[in-house]
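Render Copine C-terminal domain-containing protein in 3D.
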Amino acid sequence: MEVQVPLRLKELKASWLLMRGLSIHNVALAGPTLFGPVINTAAQIAGRSVSYNSNKYFVFLIITDGVITDLQETKDALVRASNLPLSILIVGVGGADFREMEVLDADNGRRLESSTGRVATRDIVLFVPMREVGRLISVVQALLEELPGQFLTYTRSRDIKPSPLHASLKPSTSA
C-alpha cells in the first residue's frame, strides 16, 4: 500500500526511523493544529484512486494534542471529501478541550456544512478522545466501531459490489 503524507523535515526524519523499525522515545507535538491541508491531501489521493477506477478505500489517522485552529477550513475539506472513498479517524491525546472536534464527527445526526452551504454527503469522521476511552485496545475498538458503516455507506452510494472470489482463493470442498 502506498502512503503519501505531507511532512516537515523533523517529521520526515521520524518517519524514516519508524519505517526502518527504530523507535522514537520522545515526541513533542506543537501547534498550530491545522487539519484542512492534510485532509485536502488525503482527499487528493482518494480522488486519484476514483479517477483511475481502482476500488480502494482509504483510512486516514490523525493523532492530535491540540485544539483545532482551522475549524472552518477543516469543515470545508471534509465536506468536499465526503463523496470520496475515505474515512478519517481522529484520536485526541492529552488534556486539551476537544469540544470542537466533536463537531467534525457527525454522530449527532447533523451532517457537516461548508462555508458555501454545501452539506456533506456522508459522515467520514470518527473522533475519539483517548482520555475518555483509556486502554489502547479500547481506543482501537472505538476507532473501528464506525468504520464498517462508513465503508458500506460509500460502496452502496456508488453501487459497488464485491468482486467474485477468484477460483484459486475459493475454499476447497474436497472430503
